[in-house]
Amino acid sequence: MRRCVATCGAVPRPIRISCGRLVPGFLATVHGEPPVKLCYSTASQSIVHRDECKVATPLTTALPFSKIPGPKGAPLIGSLVDALRNGVLGKTHEFFQLRHRQYGPIYKERIGGYTCVGLNDPLDAERLFRVEGRYPRRVDMVAWEMHRRHSNREAGILVLNGPEWHRNRTIVNKPMLRSHSVAHYTPMVNGVCRDLVDQWRHHRIGTTVADIRQDLFNWSIECVGCILFDCRLGCLEMTRRDDIQQLIQSVHVLLSATERLFVMPPALAKLLNVKPWRDMVAAWDYIFAIAEQQVNQRLEVMRQEQERGITPSGFLATLYCSPKIRTDEIYGNVAELLAAAVETTSNTIHWALFLLAKYPESQGKLWKEISAVISPEEEVTHDTLEKLPYLKAVIKETLRLYPVGIANTRMPSQDIVIRGFSIPAGIASSKRSNV
Ligand code: HEM
Questions:
Q1: Pair 195, 214 in one domain
Q2: Would you say the CB of residue 5 lies under 6 angstroms from ligand 1?
Q3: Side-chain half-sphere exposure of 319, counting CA atoms within 13 A
Q4: Count of domains forming the chain
Q5: Transmembrane segments in this chain: where (predicted)?
Q6: Pairing of the two strands 114-119 and 428-432
Q7: Which residue's alpha carbon is nearest to atom 36 within ligand 1?
Q8: Residue 115: helix, strand or coil by DSSP?
Q9: Which of 1, 43, 225, 246 is paired with 97 by a 20 to 30 Å CA distance?
Q10: What SS3 string covers 377-418?
Q11: Does 93 lie in the same domain as 31?
């Protein structure tokens, strides 16, 4: 299964689909949202609504792809103009909601040369994910692939597909997802969290912290630096090194430039050398430069440790000791992990703090749970985290209400039928994250 490498295999799923069980979200209940009833029919191997209990349409009798509703659009550009007018850039989540209000639970849209089917029902999404096979494929990050070729660098698991993705992913899973690996970097991450809280204590104005968003962004890069490089980058320092300041800036720029490149063919963007293309290339080049510099420094330390008979440990040590991955592939994976880690975690924590402030009863309950497990002078360990189910629920509920990834996409390797429509292999389908 293709899943996030850092969130326990958890795609931020809104509602766990289980055999007829009702799984309402705890904060959603506070919101007054109605819970959803779902069931999975194992007998027919098809996903069914409890109320409808309809068996899946076979491919032979399905309606053709052309019958899927959606905006007509003009030749070449498709519905680009309408999409831009309705916020596809900047307010993409609202744009997706609008399309579903206009066309129902399934629609198709062509923006530029790129066609996508939008799904709004978790059961349809489940069907999509069930056919993903051994090498699941997201919508290709064409602009990023072009950057790797253009700069003669190796791609990592965020960009790779097929057997190469699988080989890299198998190696990266080991230091990222195993619980004893978490134990290795917990003390350093604890230090980063302490520094952030101290910073907030000392620099708040009254009860207000001036720029919590940027602070959390910096905190996030610092944490991932600890995990990947086993060292502090200094993102939380009041006077940051120029290279670290530029790294922070590059991660910001990368994401906004990439969003813009989604609405124009990347080959044309490269040919015309438009600003989003130049920004994206410069941002990736910088992230790679820092990744390469940090990896080289750490590899040198590990070589020296080995000479002294010390077995190196940590994320890079696992990769370094694996004969199945080359150094340029390590650079690619580390650069991509660095880019993927930051906005995801910082925005999620931002929303979690917002929700805890909005629902003081949940905040009180969480405080009580934490106080019962850890005393103020105690360090958080992997074991203590296991004893905090309410904390885990708060994070999961935050991801359900405010998912950082707006949609999760797949390009299935075989034709599928969803809602009675045939969708050819290779066509991208995306599920809104908060359905
Ligand atoms: C709240 C935090 C996070 C959320 C909600 C999140 C969410 C996601 C989602 C939805 C995907 C797509 C999975 C799929 O295609 O099925 C993904 C992929 C990925 N994430 Fe995360 N992520 C988070 C944190 C991180 C962090 C901290 C890192 C790096 C340290 C990271 C690295 C990646 C990578 C490398 C992939 C591509 C994995 C692959 O295709 O094999 N993510 N993430």
A1: yes
A2: yes
A3: 27
A4: 2
A5: none
A6: parallel
A7: 4
A8: strand
A9: 1
A10: CCCCCHHHHHCCHHHHHHHHHHHHHCCCCCEEEECCCCCEEE
A11: yes
Residues 6 or more apart whose CB falls under 8 angstroms from that of 290 comprise 243, 247, 338
pLDDT at 158: 96
pLDDT averaged over 10-residue windows placed end to end, the chain, 435 residues = 66 30 31 29 33 58 94 90 92 92 95 88 91 90 96 97 95 86 90 94 85 92 94 89 90 92 88 96 98 96 93 91 94 96 94 96 97 92 92 96 89 93 90 68
Extract the tokens encoding 343. Answer: 């906005």
Q: Which long-range contacts (CB under 8 A, 24 or more apart) does 56-64 make?
A: 56/127, 56/417, 57/417, 57/420, 58/417, 59/415, 59/416, 59/417, 59/422, 62/417, 62/420, 62/421, 62/422, 63/420, 63/421, 63/422, 64/421, 64/422
Same domain, 123 and 194: no
Range of the domain at 184: 143-358
Structural contact between residues 27 and 361, judged by C-beta atoms closer than 8 angstroms: no
Cβ-contact 412, 425 below 8 angstroms: yes
Could you tell me how far CA 296 lies from the centroid of its own chain? Answer: 27
pLDDT for position 434: 65
- Cα separation of 243 and 176, whole Å? 26
**CB of 336 closer than 6 angstroms to any ligand 1 atom:** yes
pLDDT of residue 26: 36
Q: What is the CATH number of the domain that holds 121?
A: 3.30.43.20
Angstrom distance (rounded) from CA 90 to CA 433: 16
* Signed CA dihedral, 95, 101, 107, 113: sign only: negative
Domain of 334: which CATH number? 1.10.630.10
C-alpha 355 to ligand 1 mean position (Å): 22
In testing the pocket of ligand 1, which one of 1, 7, 128, 333 has its CB within 8 Å of the most ligand atoms? 7
Q: Is residue 187 part of a domain?
A: yes
- Are 250 and 290 within one domain? yes
Query: Would you say residue 369 lies in a domain?
Result: no
Q: Which of 299, 327, 358 is the last residue of a domain?
A: 358
Domain assignment present for residue 371? The answer is: no
Our answer on whether the CB atom of 404 is closer than 6 Å to any ligand 1 atom is: yes
Q: Whose CA is nearest to atom 40 of ligand 1?
A: 158
Q: Nearest Cα to 290, choosing from 233, 216, 217, 218?
A: 233
